């Protein structure tokens, strides 16, 4: 997996300054490693287990989107790109790897093909994250920077495309970040946000609050609001937030992804298997957040166990929803023209 060694060879001057003040060091708590720069801003760890989970998520998303990196209908390939909360940087760089997934003794191979830096060699791509966990060997047109996207931005204001995946639910103010995005896009530039809505819906679209994943999500919503005044899930509301910020031509595409391997369709079955493994890795990272509302480690473990049992119970048919929102900065970003496709 990715190493933090040698980061000063490829990160920008601002990042190097951050590293000198401790961004290259990490904090440990409960046997998991976390970012030290802007300590506590992001609740998930950044250790090897989490990096493997993020890699698995990337493979799943590429499968969902049929190996497309984004859906925004740009007329020309972007020349200046920013990837917010880039994590291990797989979206930004070239990565060719495969992963076997056990589906009831059969194996499905998912391959993440060449990514932005490789597909768009004329583009300059900047990946930003709180943790310096990206690979040291990257395409020459890709740069990584340790920074907090919720701070005041010091970047240029002429980006063609800004992308963010699986991050809005962890931010204290997603609307503020989106306002920063539109201020740093050139006229006609695009924003795209991709994120899972983890609330489990039944096949008919209804939500059963007694499903273990939904009991978990109910606790997480309460804990986020209690600890940081943060609202989750926020992804269904992204279109309205983008419109308020001034974006136009706002569209959404949603994909239903099953929890577990109950579908008979092989594609849905494959995706459900990967989603469930990812969720199993994600659940134990919630101990600290759930503790804010008095959930004990023992109670949290029992809740996680119920969720895992659900993933393996073929009688429970439910889905998570993957959202892709995109919108364009208009010629005159004053009238909030256009609307959302909900």
UniProtKB/TrEMBL annotation:
It comes from Xylaria hypoxylon. It holds the Pfam family Methyltransf_23. The lineage of its organism: Eukaryota, Fungi, Dikarya, Ascomycota, Pezizomycotina. InterPro entries: SAM-dependent_MTases_sf (IPR029063). CDD domains: AdoMet_MTases (cd02440). This is Methyltransferase domain-containing protein. SUPFAM superfamilies: S-adenosyl-L-methionine-dependent methyltransferases. GO terms for molecular function: methyltransferase activity. Belongs to the methyltransferase superfamily. LaeA methyltransferase family.
């Amino acid at each position: 997996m990715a190493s933090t060694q040698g980061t000063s060879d490829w990160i920008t001057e601002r990042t190097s300054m951050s590293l000198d003040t401790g961004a290259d060091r990490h904090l440990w708590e409960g046997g998991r490693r976390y970012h030290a720069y802007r300590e506590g801003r992001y609740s998930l760890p950044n250790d090897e287990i989490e990096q493997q989970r993020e890699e698995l998520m990337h493979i799943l998303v590429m499968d969902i989107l049929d190996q497309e990196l984004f859906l925004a209908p740009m007329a020309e390939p972007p020349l200046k790109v920013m990837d917010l909360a880039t994590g291990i940087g797989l979206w930004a760089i070239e990565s060719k790897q495969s992963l076997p997934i056990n589906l009831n003794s059969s194996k499905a191979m998912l391959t993440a093909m060449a990514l932005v830096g490789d597909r768009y060699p004329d583009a300059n791509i900047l990946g930003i994250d709180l943790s310096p966990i990206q690979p040291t060997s990257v395409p020459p047109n890709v740069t990584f920077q340790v920074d907090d996207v919720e701070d005041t931005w010091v970047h240029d204001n002429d980006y063609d495309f800004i992308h963010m995946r699986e991050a809005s639910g962890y931010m204290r103010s997603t609307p503020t970040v989106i306002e920063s995005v539109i201020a740093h896009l050139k006229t006609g530039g695009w924003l795209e946000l991709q994120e899972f809505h983890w609330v489990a819906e039944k096949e008919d679209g209804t939500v059963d609050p007694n499903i273990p994943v939904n009991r978990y999500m109910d606790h997480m919503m309460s804990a986020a609001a209690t600890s940081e005044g943060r609202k989750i899930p926020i992804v269904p509301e992204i279109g309205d937030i983008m419109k308020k910020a001034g974006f136009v031509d706002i569209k959404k595409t949603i994909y239903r992804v099953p929890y577990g391997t109950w579908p008979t369709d092989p594609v849905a079955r494959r995706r459900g298997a990967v989603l469930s493994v990812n969720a199993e890795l994600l659940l134990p990272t919630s101990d600290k957040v759930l503790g804010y509302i008095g959930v004990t480690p023992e109670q949290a473990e029992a809740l996680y166990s119920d969720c895992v049992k659900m993933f393996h119970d073929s009688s429970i048919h439910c889905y998570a929803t993957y959202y892709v929102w995109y919108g364009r900065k208009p010629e005159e970003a004053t009238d909030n023209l256009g609307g959302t496709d909900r």
